[in-house]
Specification:
Elements: E1 2-7, E2 12-19, E3 24-31, H1 33-36, H2 44-65, E4 75-81, H3 85-102, E5 106-110, H4 111-122, E6 130-135, E7 140-147, E8 150-155, H5 162-172, H6 179-187, H7 212-224, H8 229-254, E9 259-263, H9 270-282, E10 286-288, H10 292-295, H11 300-311
Parallel strand pairs: 1-4, 4-5, 6-9, 9-10
Antiparallel strand pairs: 1-2, 2-3, 6-7, 7-8
Helix pairs in contact: 2-3, 4-11, 5-6, 5-7, 5-8, 6-8, 7-8, 8-9
Bound molecules: adenosine-5'-triphosphate (ATP) and fe (iii) ion (FE).
Length: 342
Protein backbone atom coordinates (compact mmCIF):
# COMPACT_ATOMS: atom_id res chain seq x y z
CA UNK A 1 0.00 0.00 0.00
CA UNK A 2 1.07 3.60 -0.64
CA UNK A 3 0.21 6.32 1.86
CA UNK A 4 0.31 10.10 1.37
CA UNK A 5 1.39 11.91 4.54
CA UNK A 6 0.71 15.56 5.36
CA UNK A 7 2.32 17.53 8.22
CA UNK A 8 1.44 21.08 9.28
CA UNK A 9 1.41 21.14 13.10
CA UNK A 10 4.12 23.74 13.64
CA UNK A 11 6.28 25.77 11.24
CA UNK A 12 7.22 23.09 8.72
CA UNK A 13 4.91 22.28 5.82
CA UNK A 14 5.52 18.77 4.54
CA UNK A 15 4.16 16.05 2.27
CA UNK A 16 5.51 12.55 1.53
CA UNK A 17 4.63 9.25 -0.13
CA UNK A 18 5.69 6.11 1.76
CA UNK A 19 4.83 2.49 1.03
CA UNK A 20 4.41 -0.61 3.18
CA UNK A 21 7.93 -1.78 2.24
CA UNK A 22 9.45 1.33 3.88
CA UNK A 23 10.21 2.95 0.53
CA UNK A 24 10.04 6.73 0.69
CA UNK A 25 8.76 7.32 -2.84
CA UNK A 26 9.00 11.09 -2.54
CA UNK A 27 8.99 13.74 0.14
CA UNK A 28 9.29 17.49 0.57
CA UNK A 29 9.56 19.83 3.57
CA UNK A 30 9.29 23.61 3.37
CA UNK A 31 10.41 25.47 6.50
CA UNK A 32 8.99 28.88 7.38
CA UNK A 33 11.93 30.26 9.39
CA UNK A 34 12.19 33.40 7.24
CA UNK A 35 8.53 34.26 7.88
CA UNK A 36 8.80 33.91 11.67
CA UNK A 37 12.35 35.08 12.41
CA UNK A 38 11.43 38.81 12.60
CA UNK A 39 9.22 37.90 15.59
CA UNK A 40 11.76 35.70 17.42
CA UNK A 41 9.47 32.66 17.45
CA UNK A 42 6.64 30.95 15.60
CA UNK A 43 3.56 33.17 15.09
CA UNK A 44 0.56 30.80 14.90
CA UNK A 45 -1.50 32.75 12.39
CA UNK A 46 1.46 33.35 10.08
CA UNK A 47 2.18 29.60 10.24
CA UNK A 48 -1.42 28.66 9.42
CA UNK A 49 -1.54 31.06 6.46
CA UNK A 50 1.80 29.78 5.18
CA UNK A 51 0.53 26.17 5.29
CA UNK A 52 -2.48 27.29 3.20
CA UNK A 53 -0.13 28.73 0.58
CA UNK A 54 2.49 25.99 0.54
CA UNK A 55 0.74 22.64 1.14
CA UNK A 56 -1.31 22.21 -2.10
CA UNK A 57 1.81 22.69 -4.25
CA UNK A 58 3.77 20.23 -2.09
CA UNK A 59 1.10 17.57 -2.59
CA UNK A 60 1.28 18.13 -6.35
CA UNK A 61 5.08 17.99 -6.19
CA UNK A 62 5.38 14.69 -4.25
CA UNK A 63 2.86 13.04 -6.58
CA UNK A 64 4.78 14.30 -9.63
CA UNK A 65 8.15 13.24 -8.20
CA UNK A 66 6.82 9.71 -7.70
CA UNK A 67 5.10 9.83 -11.11
CA UNK A 68 1.76 9.08 -9.50
CA UNK A 69 -1.75 10.41 -9.36
CA UNK A 70 -3.95 10.71 -6.30
CA UNK A 71 -5.87 7.63 -7.51
CA UNK A 72 -2.70 5.53 -7.07
CA UNK A 73 -2.61 6.27 -3.32
CA UNK A 74 -4.28 3.86 -0.88
CA UNK A 75 -4.93 6.27 2.01
CA UNK A 76 -4.24 9.81 3.16
CA UNK A 77 -2.58 10.36 6.54
CA UNK A 78 -2.70 13.87 7.98
CA UNK A 79 -1.53 15.19 11.34
CA UNK A 80 -4.63 15.87 13.46
CA UNK A 81 -2.72 17.20 16.50
CA UNK A 82 -1.16 18.05 18.84
CA UNK A 83 0.20 21.38 17.69
CA UNK A 84 -0.75 24.91 16.67
CA UNK A 85 -4.38 24.25 15.93
CA UNK A 86 -4.70 26.66 12.99
CA UNK A 87 -1.93 24.87 11.15
CA UNK A 88 -3.24 21.44 12.11
CA UNK A 89 -6.62 22.41 10.64
CA UNK A 90 -4.99 23.31 7.31
CA UNK A 91 -3.29 19.94 6.90
CA UNK A 92 -6.16 17.90 8.29
CA UNK A 93 -8.71 19.64 6.08
CA UNK A 94 -6.45 19.22 3.04
CA UNK A 95 -6.30 15.52 3.87
CA UNK A 96 -10.05 15.31 4.29
CA UNK A 97 -10.63 17.07 0.96
CA UNK A 98 -8.25 14.75 -0.87
CA UNK A 99 -9.75 11.68 0.82
CA UNK A 100 -13.26 12.75 -0.09
CA UNK A 101 -12.38 13.65 -3.69
CA UNK A 102 -10.36 10.48 -4.34
CA UNK A 103 -12.63 8.15 -2.36
CA UNK A 104 -9.74 7.02 -0.12
CA UNK A 105 -9.64 6.52 3.66
CA UNK A 106 -8.41 9.31 5.91
CA UNK A 107 -5.93 8.47 8.66
CA UNK A 108 -5.86 11.13 11.39
CA UNK A 109 -2.35 10.83 12.83
CA UNK A 110 -1.13 11.93 16.23
CA UNK A 111 2.07 13.91 15.50
CA UNK A 112 3.73 12.33 18.55
CA UNK A 113 2.88 8.89 17.19
CA UNK A 114 4.65 10.00 14.00
CA UNK A 115 7.80 10.74 16.03
CA UNK A 116 7.34 7.59 18.14
CA UNK A 117 7.11 5.19 15.17
CA UNK A 118 9.62 7.02 12.91
CA UNK A 119 12.54 4.81 14.08
CA UNK A 120 10.73 1.80 12.62
CA UNK A 121 10.63 3.45 9.20
CA UNK A 122 14.42 3.75 9.24
CA UNK A 123 15.16 0.47 11.04
CA UNK A 124 13.23 -2.64 9.90
CA UNK A 125 14.82 -4.69 12.68
CA UNK A 126 13.29 -2.56 15.44
CA UNK A 127 10.49 -4.54 17.07
CA UNK A 128 8.03 -3.66 19.82
CA UNK A 129 8.29 -3.12 22.71
CA UNK A 130 10.97 -0.41 22.95
CA UNK A 131 11.81 2.37 25.35
CA UNK A 132 11.53 5.74 23.60
CA UNK A 133 13.06 9.05 24.63
CA UNK A 134 10.88 11.51 22.72
CA UNK A 135 12.68 14.86 22.82
CA UNK A 136 11.17 17.53 20.60
CA UNK A 137 10.23 21.21 20.55
CA UNK A 138 7.09 20.69 22.61
CA UNK A 139 7.68 17.42 24.46
CA UNK A 140 10.20 15.51 26.55
CA UNK A 141 8.89 12.09 27.50
CA UNK A 142 9.98 8.54 28.15
CA UNK A 143 7.51 6.05 26.72
CA UNK A 144 7.28 2.31 26.58
CA UNK A 145 6.16 1.75 22.99
CA UNK A 146 4.39 -1.63 23.14
CA UNK A 147 2.71 -1.55 19.75
CA UNK A 148 0.86 0.73 17.37
CA UNK A 149 -1.54 2.77 19.50
CA UNK A 150 -0.21 1.17 22.70
CA UNK A 151 1.98 3.56 24.68
CA UNK A 152 2.80 3.67 28.37
CA UNK A 153 4.21 7.00 29.50
CA UNK A 154 6.88 6.60 32.17
CA UNK A 155 7.94 10.23 32.44
CA UNK A 156 7.42 13.73 31.14
CA UNK A 157 8.82 17.21 31.77
CA UNK A 158 7.41 19.18 34.65
CA UNK A 159 8.13 22.45 32.81
CA UNK A 160 9.97 23.06 29.51
CA UNK A 161 10.61 20.60 26.69
CA UNK A 162 14.22 19.82 25.77
CA UNK A 163 13.96 21.40 22.31
CA UNK A 164 12.40 24.47 23.88
CA UNK A 165 15.41 24.66 26.23
CA UNK A 166 17.76 24.55 23.20
CA UNK A 167 15.72 27.27 21.49
CA UNK A 168 15.79 29.50 24.60
CA UNK A 169 19.52 28.96 25.14
CA UNK A 170 20.05 29.91 21.48
CA UNK A 171 18.06 33.10 21.97
CA UNK A 172 20.10 34.04 25.04
CA UNK A 173 23.29 33.43 23.06
CA UNK A 174 22.02 35.59 20.19
CA UNK A 175 21.72 32.63 17.80
CA UNK A 176 18.81 32.23 15.37
CA UNK A 177 15.68 30.07 15.45
CA UNK A 178 15.46 27.06 15.51
CA UNK A 179 18.11 27.03 18.16
CA UNK A 180 19.08 23.35 18.38
CA UNK A 181 21.35 23.12 15.34
CA UNK A 182 22.92 26.54 16.08
CA UNK A 183 23.70 25.61 19.71
CA UNK A 184 25.16 22.27 18.60
CA UNK A 185 27.43 23.99 16.06
CA UNK A 186 28.70 26.55 18.58
CA UNK A 187 29.06 23.90 21.30
CA UNK A 188 31.51 21.99 19.08
CA UNK A 189 34.03 24.82 19.66
CA UNK A 190 33.49 25.12 23.42
CA UNK A 191 34.38 23.30 26.61
CA UNK A 192 31.51 21.31 28.20
CA UNK A 193 32.91 21.73 31.73
CA UNK A 194 33.71 25.46 31.55
CA UNK A 195 30.39 26.76 32.91
CA UNK A 196 28.87 25.27 36.09
CA UNK A 197 25.21 24.53 35.27
CA UNK A 198 22.58 22.52 37.18
CA UNK A 199 21.27 19.09 36.13
CA UNK A 200 17.66 19.36 37.33
CA UNK A 201 16.01 16.15 38.65
CA UNK A 202 19.22 14.12 38.57
CA UNK A 203 19.07 11.52 41.32
CA UNK A 204 15.27 11.54 41.48
CA UNK A 205 13.77 8.06 41.64
CA UNK A 206 11.11 8.84 39.05
CA UNK A 207 12.44 9.53 35.54
CA UNK A 208 10.82 12.96 35.02
CA UNK A 209 12.56 15.95 33.42
CA UNK A 210 12.84 19.64 34.23
CA UNK A 211 14.65 22.26 32.16
CA UNK A 212 13.37 25.61 33.48
CA UNK A 213 16.14 25.93 36.09
CA UNK A 214 18.78 25.17 33.50
CA UNK A 215 17.35 27.90 31.29
CA UNK A 216 17.63 30.47 34.11
CA UNK A 217 21.18 29.34 34.88
CA UNK A 218 22.16 29.82 31.22
CA UNK A 219 20.62 33.28 31.33
CA UNK A 220 22.67 34.17 34.44
CA UNK A 221 25.86 32.76 32.92
CA UNK A 222 25.41 34.85 29.75
CA UNK A 223 24.51 37.98 31.75
CA UNK A 224 27.57 37.61 34.01
CA UNK A 225 29.86 38.23 31.03
CA UNK A 226 32.36 35.77 32.59
CA UNK A 227 32.09 33.05 29.96
CA UNK A 228 32.72 32.59 26.25
CA UNK A 229 29.51 31.89 24.26
CA UNK A 230 30.90 28.62 22.89
CA UNK A 231 31.62 27.43 26.46
CA UNK A 232 28.07 28.29 27.53
CA UNK A 233 26.69 26.38 24.53
CA UNK A 234 28.89 23.33 25.18
CA UNK A 235 28.15 23.29 28.92
CA UNK A 236 24.42 23.69 28.32
CA UNK A 237 24.36 20.86 25.80
CA UNK A 238 26.31 18.63 28.20
CA UNK A 239 23.85 19.40 31.01
CA UNK A 240 20.90 18.37 28.82
CA UNK A 241 22.71 15.19 27.78
CA UNK A 242 23.54 14.33 31.42
CA UNK A 243 19.84 14.75 32.31
CA UNK A 244 18.81 12.55 29.37
CA UNK A 245 21.24 9.80 30.38
CA UNK A 246 20.38 9.86 34.09
CA UNK A 247 16.61 9.97 33.56
CA UNK A 248 16.66 7.32 30.82
CA UNK A 249 18.72 5.02 33.04
CA UNK A 250 15.94 5.11 35.65
CA UNK A 251 13.33 4.41 32.95
CA UNK A 252 15.32 1.42 31.65
CA UNK A 253 14.97 -0.12 35.12
CA UNK A 254 11.19 0.43 35.02
CA UNK A 255 10.54 -0.75 31.47
CA UNK A 256 10.49 -4.26 30.06
CA UNK A 257 12.21 -3.72 26.70
CA UNK A 258 15.05 -4.95 24.53
CA UNK A 259 15.78 -1.68 22.70
CA UNK A 260 16.38 1.96 23.49
CA UNK A 261 15.23 4.46 20.89
CA UNK A 262 15.48 8.24 20.67
CA UNK A 263 13.35 10.39 18.36
CA UNK A 264 12.06 13.96 17.95
CA UNK A 265 14.03 17.03 16.82
CA UNK A 266 16.58 16.92 19.66
CA UNK A 267 17.54 13.39 18.59
CA UNK A 268 19.23 15.04 15.59
CA UNK A 269 21.95 16.17 18.03
CA UNK A 270 25.14 14.10 17.64
CA UNK A 271 26.09 14.29 21.31
CA UNK A 272 22.62 13.13 22.35
CA UNK A 273 22.79 10.22 19.90
CA UNK A 274 26.26 9.10 21.04
CA UNK A 275 25.48 9.30 24.77
CA UNK A 276 22.25 7.33 24.54
CA UNK A 277 23.86 4.74 22.31
CA UNK A 278 26.50 4.27 25.00
CA UNK A 279 23.84 3.99 27.71
CA UNK A 280 22.00 1.36 25.68
CA UNK A 281 25.24 -0.61 25.33
CA UNK A 282 25.86 -0.50 29.08
CA UNK A 283 22.43 -2.07 29.66
CA UNK A 284 22.67 -4.66 26.90
CA UNK A 285 19.94 -2.97 24.86
CA UNK A 286 19.85 -2.55 21.10
CA UNK A 287 19.91 1.11 20.06
CA UNK A 288 18.05 2.85 17.26
CA UNK A 289 17.79 6.47 16.17
CA UNK A 290 16.40 7.75 12.85
CA UNK A 291 18.58 9.85 10.53
CA UNK A 292 18.57 13.54 11.47
CA UNK A 293 16.07 14.64 8.82
CA UNK A 294 13.58 12.07 10.15
CA UNK A 295 13.98 13.39 13.72
CA UNK A 296 12.83 16.95 12.98
CA UNK A 297 9.33 17.47 11.60
CA UNK A 298 8.61 15.81 8.25
CA UNK A 299 5.72 14.07 6.51
CA UNK A 300 7.45 10.72 5.92
CA UNK A 301 6.94 9.89 9.61
CA UNK A 302 3.25 10.85 9.34
CA UNK A 303 2.83 8.68 6.26
CA UNK A 304 4.67 5.87 8.09
CA UNK A 305 2.40 6.14 11.13
CA UNK A 306 -0.40 5.88 8.56
CA UNK A 307 1.18 2.73 7.09
CA UNK A 308 1.45 1.17 10.56
CA UNK A 309 -2.18 1.90 11.38
CA UNK A 310 -3.40 0.94 7.91
CA UNK A 311 -1.64 -2.40 8.28
CA UNK A 312 -2.97 -3.08 11.77
CA UNK A 313 -6.20 -5.08 11.84
CA UNK A 314 -9.32 -4.12 9.96
CA UNK A 315 -8.60 -0.43 9.57
CA UNK A 316 -11.48 1.35 7.85
CA UNK A 317 -10.29 4.94 8.06
CA UNK A 318 -11.03 7.73 10.51
CA UNK A 319 -14.30 9.66 10.22
CA UNK A 320 -14.30 12.87 8.19
CA UNK A 321 -15.55 14.79 11.22
CA UNK A 322 -12.33 13.98 13.14
CA UNK A 323 -11.38 17.18 15.00
CA UNK A 324 -8.06 19.04 14.96
CA UNK A 325 -6.58 18.87 18.46
CA UNK A 326 -4.22 21.34 20.11
CA UNK A 327 -3.55 18.78 22.88
CA UNK A 328 -3.49 15.04 22.31
CA UNK A 329 -1.48 12.92 24.79
CA UNK A 330 -0.13 9.76 23.24
CA UNK A 331 -1.07 7.42 26.07
CA UNK A 332 -4.73 8.36 26.54
CA UNK A 333 -6.28 7.88 23.13
CA UNK A 334 -8.59 4.98 23.73
CA UNK A 335 -10.13 5.51 20.29
CA UNK A 336 -6.91 4.41 18.56
CA UNK A 337 -6.70 1.18 16.61
CA UNK A 338 -4.45 -1.24 18.47
CA UNK A 339 -2.33 -3.78 16.69
CA UNK A 340 1.08 -5.12 15.92
CA UNK A 341 1.72 -2.87 12.92
CA UNK A 342 3.83 -3.82 9.93
P1 LIG B 1 6.50 18.57 18.94
O1 LIG B 1 6.97 17.47 18.07
O2 LIG B 1 6.74 18.34 20.40
O3 LIG B 1 5.11 18.99 18.64
P2 LIG B 1 8.01 20.26 17.21
O4 LIG B 1 7.33 19.48 16.16
O5 LIG B 1 8.04 21.72 17.08
O6 LIG B 1 7.42 19.87 18.63
P3 LIG B 1 10.41 18.91 16.38
O7 LIG B 1 10.34 19.37 14.99
O8 LIG B 1 10.24 17.47 16.62
O9 LIG B 1 9.50 19.75 17.38
O10 LIG B 1 11.81 19.34 16.95
C1 LIG B 1 12.20 20.67 16.85
C2 LIG B 1 13.05 20.95 18.06
O11 LIG B 1 14.25 20.19 17.98
C3 LIG B 1 13.45 22.40 18.18
O12 LIG B 1 13.26 22.81 19.52
C4 LIG B 1 14.92 22.38 17.81
O13 LIG B 1 15.67 23.39 18.44
C5 LIG B 1 15.34 21.00 18.26
N1 LIG B 1 16.51 20.55 17.49
C6 LIG B 1 16.60 20.38 16.15
N2 LIG B 1 17.85 20.02 15.81
C7 LIG B 1 18.57 19.94 16.96
C8 LIG B 1 19.93 19.63 17.27
N3 LIG B 1 20.82 19.34 16.31
N4 LIG B 1 20.33 19.67 18.57
C9 LIG B 1 19.42 19.96 19.55
N5 LIG B 1 18.14 20.29 19.32
C10 LIG B 1 17.71 20.27 18.04
FE1 LIG C 1 7.53 17.42 16.04
Amino acid sequence: AIILGLESSCDDTAAALVDTDRQILSQAVVGQADRHSPYGGVVPEIAARAHVEILPDLVRQVLEDAEMEIGDIDAIAATAGPGLVGGVMVGLLTGKGLALAAGKPLIAVNHLEGHALSPRLADPSLDFPYLLLLASGGHCQLLEVRGVGDYRRLATTIDDAAGEAFDKAAKQLGLGYPGGPAVEKLAAEGCPTAVPLPRPMIGSGEPHFSFAGLKSAVQRAVASGQFEPEDVAASFQQAVIDCFVDRTRIAIEQADVKSLVVAGGVAANQGVRRSLEKLAGQHGLAFSVPPGWLCTDNAAMIAWAGVERFASGEFAGDPLDTPARARWPLDSDADKVRGAGV
